[in-house]
Design a protein that fits this description.
82 residues; alpha+beta; two-stranded antiparallel sheet; 3 helices; 13% strand; rod-shaped
């Protein structure tokens, strides 16, 4: 049932988030046996880390366009340069 770390790393952000949401729903339902809950929690933690890494990588790529006095694009600066 649980995917290996290699399988998880091939998921895109949206699929990883969707799987994480499924895991949360199952755990919150309380209908999952303890052993499966532990397995799901472990997978969920890996998915959370993967999603966090993907978000941080995307944020690092985002650039802010700076405008000159006339409102024309002048240059770009890193997202978090403020």
């Amino acid at each position: 049932m649980s995917e290996t770390k290699e399988d998880l790393s091939t998921l895109n952000f949206e699929d990883a988030l969707k799987r994480l949401e499924e895991i949360v729903r199952k755990l919150e339902s309380g209908d999952v046996p303890l052993d499966q809950s532990i397995e799901l929690y472990s997978e969920g933690e890996k998915l959370r880390g993967l999603c966090q890494q993907r978000l941080e990588a995307a944020q690092a790529k985002i650039e802010k366009i700076t405008l000159d006095r006339e409102g024309k694009p002048q240059a770009t600066t890193p997202f978090d340069a403020d």
